[in-house]
Amino acid sequence: MLRIFAFILFFTATCGAVTAQFAPQRQLFAEPAESALDIDLNKHLNSEMIGIDEFISNTNSESFSSYENLAIYLSEQFNDPERLSRSIYTWIALNISYDQSSVSNADRDNQSARQVWKNRSAVCEGYASLFNEMCSAAGIESRIINGYVKSFAGDDLSYPNHSWNSVKINGKWRLLDVTWASVNSEGHMRSNPDLDKNYMFHKLDHFFLVNPNRMILTHLPEDPLWQLHDNYINLEIFEKGEEVIKSTLRNSTSGEKDFEQLIADYEKLDSLDKSISYLERMERNSKNRSREYGLGIAYYYKAQEILKNARASNSYKAAQEAKFFYEKSLSQLAVLQEEDFGYEFSKDLAKNVAFRIEALK
After folding, report:
1. Which residues contact 331 (CB under 8 A, 6 or more apart)?
2. pLDDT digits (tens, 9 = 90+) for 236-253
3. Which residues, 6 or more positions from 225, have their beta carbon under 8 angstroms from its beta carbon?
4. Which of 28, 100, 291, 303 is the most exposed place for a label (fewest CB within 10 A)?
5. SS3 of residue 163 by DSSP
6. Which range, of 98-112, 166-180, 312-326, averages the lowest pLDDT?
7. Mean per-residue pLDDT for 121-134?
8. Under a CB-based contact definition with an 8 Å cutoff, are residues 212 and 227 in contact?
9. What is the pTM of this model?
């Protein structure tokens, strides 16, 4: 029982996390993949956005004591949310270098926005975290999205490997990837004056407010809500490549969804129901079974919550509802195999769940 209780505490401590990964924490590290990029250098660029990029390239960030102060300064320069978002995005892309050493030593502690600002380096979760925090300081809604990206042939998609962002512009959620927009793999602007600015402008533009149908070709959110299009792409289709994805997008007959409302409704849920909702949407992945693992725990805890809050007058109804969630918990835990993380813990929990189901009969 103590092991189960510790397990539940572990779940409740992590259920607010974006990834809902219940295997040992893996750093999200997919780096900018120059060889995988298909950037149209002949595309017409918005002169206003180029002006923002130029402004940022000439901004002396050393005069700001914190990223919050910089974000507030930028909000004073750009009052339109799209332009302000672009300024934050561009500053990070031009000033934060990709931290290869962090990939090697799997140091997660230096990926907080505060540490990224201090170190001026990050992997993708650090880039996404800093963008998110700077947007918050500037009064813009944004979210961190974790999921899968394909940078090179043979990428292992057993676990999510990347973080990017969504930002709310004029009431609509839009997608961007500041890590892949980074120019630091080619050379920092201030340290390399010969850097081709035309390429820089196009690269910044390529990953800013990306059409969901283009984003899904390389970025698959772990939470399908953040695909932000009606044609659902699962992990199996995603792994088959761009042409299969495009074909699925063309042939889908799914109805139009209001993602702004769906996301708003989801975010109104309490932490436990939010975790259940997230995990139920999450793509099944036979390579790690984190979905089944998390749901097994979440359903158990939901049943416990129902019984705890039950009133005497509704005790029978509460018992039946709790039994329903205990049974769902048991069915999820039964999927786990010996090689899966948490298997031994899940066996203990399953025994406890089975006992509680029997007691409610």
Report:
1. none
2. 999 998 999 999 988 866
3. 259, 262, 263, 266, 281
4. 100
5. strand
6. 98-112
7. 94
8. yes
9. 0.85
